[in-house]
Design brief:
The complex is a heterodimer of chains A (about 180) and B (about 290). Chain A has about 180 residues and is mostly beta strands. Chain A has a single domain, classed as Lipid/polyisoprenoid-binding, YceI-like (Lipocalin, Beta Barrel), CATH 2.40.128. Helix content of chain A is about 15%, strand content about 50%. Chain A is elongated and about 70 Å long. With about 290 residues, chain B is mainly beta. Chain B folds into 2 domains: about 30 residues, no CATH class; about 250 residues, Porin (Beta Barrel). Helices cover about 15% and strands about 45% of the residues of chain B. Chain B is built from 4 helices and 16 strands. The radius of gyration of chain B is 26 Å and the shape is elongated. The chains are: A mainly beta (about 180), B mainly beta (about 290). At the A-B interface, helix 1, strand 1, strand 2, strand 3 and helix 2 of A face helix 1 and helix 2 of B.
Chain lengths: ~180, ~290
């Protein structure tokens, strides 16, 4: 009986401590809106993310203020009117890879993954499932994905005057270059 | 014994549940402390008549049409002032993150004006704390109105006036911003017309946001050395109005006792009195063009 305790205890310790984590602090998240009236594009090169390859868990975090637009006025409106970045400074994603077994982290190559999790924008959390690619390299892992979000899902209110200039769904592009984290 | 055996299982379970939070904590521990610069203290580069600490972003050109009607108390014959029009057209451009310049021409005394505004301090929190934003404003204006009387000294220089202002503003909350504006106006002989050449004044202005796109603004300048302007008593300018923002435009609707739309004019030459109904309705339209994308 005692031996079983020890095994379980050992297992739980392993679960907490084991597993190489990968991190980035300057990942890219951008979005693009296309309408016949206007194309809008924003880039953020300060997205942070962690990927735990043992569990497939991944989290991302991005500061709304760090999205940059071609036009200064768009950036101001984005922060002031749509995202209210003073009230909701961050956006986060917490998820996990659902087909972790199909990725071989010890073999370099490109793997298609499905990720499920919670995307939080403006304190509104939605379950999302996203397709992406993991590229296992010698010195790290590159992750990339393209998916669509609907602004109205996150209580982003777009007034009638500009409704024609902002697409119904925005295409989000994520590109992360993860490097290993030294575990303590 | 059985209860005890469940304990490690719980430990395991909680480890799995909180794994994502652990990852999030790892992210936050590693996040570099950021400086949060305050943006959009005001919607526009003007509070009402006077400048706000805001400047044009680099590469952005602001085409401004400012308009003041005649006096509200001028009666039905003048359609309560709407028959008269005072206009200033301006082109204003952001050169760097901290410098904007502008040129304008107003039909009030056929005046050309040019200005430069420097952002010296920016309100910020986080890694760097700065309680206020501070800008420095300088301008020069040239009155080109033909002189009616015989004047001995009608030189170009005698038609010039100069303004220096220090603009200090704080955005107290997303809804409330206030600004203090100590101002100095120097007027050469033809403008001063026997009155003090140097005027000292203190401006105070602010805005209260009523909704995401509409704010209520007010602005007052206290002039420390009262004087006349061309034989008429001069009063302190008071302006109240609303900022209304649509996509690329900011409309400012304004009620004011001054006709002039530049500093030397509304600080030194406001001859209207609110209490007598010398109120001018007007508007500023700002249309921003992006000349240089970044």
């Amino acid at each position: 009986m005692k031996r079983i305790y020890l095994v379980l205890l050992f297992l739980s310790v392993v679960l907490i401590g084991y597993g190489q984590k990968y991190m980035t602090k300057n990942g890219y998240i951008g979005f693009y809106s296309h309408t016949p009236m206007e194309d809008i594009k924003a880039d953020n090169n300060q997205a942070a993310g962690v990927l735990d390859v043992s569990t497939g868990e991944m989290v991302f975090q991005v500061l709304i203020r760090s999205f940059h637009f071609e036009r200064a006025l768009m950036e101001e409106h984005f922060n002031e009117n749509y995202m209210e970045s003073e009230k909701f400074p961050k956006s986060t994603f917490k998820g996990r890879i659902t087909n972790l077994s199909s990725v071989n982290f010890s073999k370099n190559g490109s793997y298609d993954v499905s990720v499920e999790g919670d995307l939080t924008i403006r304190d509104v959390t939605k379950k999302v499932s996203i397709k992406g690619t993991l590229e296992v390299l010698a010195g790290g892992i590159n992750a990339s994905s393209k998916f669509k979000i609907i602004p109205e899902d996150y209580k982003i209110n777009i007034p009638g005057v500009v409704r024609d200039k902002i697409a119904k769904d925005l295409e989000v592009t994520v590109t992360m270059k993860f490097t290993p984290v030294e575990t303590k | 014994m059985k209860r005890l055996s469940l304990a490690p299982l719980f430990v395991m379970l909680s480890a799995v549940v909180s794994a994502q939070d652990d990852l999030m904590n790892l992210l936050n521990e590693n996040a570099a402390p950021a400086v949060n610069y305050t943006t959009a203290t005001f919607k526009s580069t003007r509070i009402m008549n006077g400048h706000s600490i805001e400047r044009m972003a680099p590469g952005q050109l602001d085409f401004r049409i400012s308009h003041r009607f005649g006096r509200l108390n001028s009666g039905a014959y003048e359609f309560f002032g709407l028959d008269q029009a005072n206009l200033r057209l301006g082109l204003e451009y952001g050169i760097t993150k901290w410098l904007m310049v502008g040129l304008g021409r107003g039909n009030y005394e056929k005046t050309f004006d040019g200005f430069a505004k420097f952002s010296a301090l920016r309100q910020s929190s986080g890694a760097k704390t700065m309680p206020v934003s501070l800008s420095i404003f300088t301008s020069a204006a040239l009155k080109t109105l033909k002189l009616t009387g015989a004047s001995d000294n009608d030189y170009l220089s005698s038609r010039m006036s100069y303004v220096a202002q220090i603009l200090v503003a704080r955005k107290f909350s997303p809804g409330l911003s206030l600004q203090l504006t100590p101002s100095y106006v120097h007027r050469n002989p033809d403008i001063a017309d026997g009155d003090p050449a140097d005027l000292w004044s203190l401006g105070a202005g602010g805005r209260i946001k009523l909704s995401k796109r509409i704010s209520f603004n007010a602005e007052y300048y206290y002039v420390a050395n009262p004087h006349d302007y061309q034989g008429q008593a001069v009063y302190n300018p008071l302006s109240v109005g609303f900022d209304v923002e649509t996509g690329g435009h900011v409309f400012q609707l304004i009620c004011t006792n001054s006709v002039a739309m530049i500093e030397k004019g509304f600080i030194g030459e406001t001859t209207g009195q609110w209490s007598k109904g010398d109120i001018h309705f007007g508007f500023n339209i700002s249309r921003v063009f992006t000349l240089k994308k970044h």
